[in-house]
Structures are given as structure tokens and as C-alpha cells.
């Protein structure tokens, strides 16, 4: 008696034996280009308007960027790298080894003033009064 495969196993075997192709149509390339251009524009505008984003850059990832996408263009993966947040004179953090808790502390609040509708010091001080 031959053992039958589970539906998942059958599906994986079908995928493995079929030819999967990166959809390289003109429409696909145009959509990808337009989305990339839109995200680049957003990042450039953030850089111009806010100090916190001054040195940021757009990072692209995922199946579309790596040309591994199979099927419809239904999602794009982007991240914004923000070196200001890695600057210890702007933001510091401590990690509790026992609880894995991470505590952040802004050292330079003026970098947030053009981003927030009120003075950053006033906003942060409200959180400092909250019980931990």
C-alpha cells in the first residue's frame, strides 16, 4: 500500500517541479519603477524637512527588489535607515539582561522640535512622570 502525501507536500512538490518565473512584463517594471520613485521622493522630502531624517536613506528589500517575486505585485518592502538614531549623543538605550527590556533616552530633544507640534521637552517630560 502506497502512502499518500499530505496536500501541503503535494503542493510543495508541484511548486518544485514547475517553472517559476519572475514576471518581467512592461507593466511590472513600470509599477516597480513608480513605487521606487515615490518612496525615494518621500525620503528626500523627509530629509529636507526634518532634522531627524537628515542623513537617512531608503533601503529596499524583499522579493520584488531581489527579483524573486512570483505572481502579482501586491506588496513592496522598504525601510528607512536613520543614522541619527544610532548617534549616542542623540539617543541612548540600555538593555536589561534579566528582562530583555530596552529603555531609550533622548539626549538631544531639539532634533524632534520640527517633527512634533509642541516642544519636545514638554512632551517627553510628561512621559517621565508616568509610573514604570
Average pLDDT value? 82
Shape: flat
Q: What Rg, in angstroms, do the CA atoms define? A: 23 Å
Q: Name the strands of the widest sheet in spatial order.
A: 1-2
Query: Strand share of the residues?
Result: 15-25%
Helical stretch tally: 4
Q: What is the strand tally?
A: 4
Q: Give the biggest beta sheet.
A: 2 strands, antiparallel
Taking the alpha carbons of the first and last residues, their distance comes to 64 Å
Structural class: alpha+beta
Assembly category: single chain
State the helical fraction.
25-40%
Low-confidence spans: none
Strand-and-helix sequence, N→C? HHEHEEEH
Descriptive report:
The protein has 132 residues and is α+β, with helices and mostly antiparallel strands. The protein has 2 domains: 19-83, no CATH class; 87-128, no CATH class. The chain contains 4 helices and 4 strands. The strands form 2 sheets. Strands 1-2 form a two-stranded antiparallel sheet. The chain has a two-stranded antiparallel sheet with strand order 3-4. β3 and β4 form a beta hairpin. The longest helix is centred in the first third of the chain and has 24 residues, at 26-49. The protein is flat.
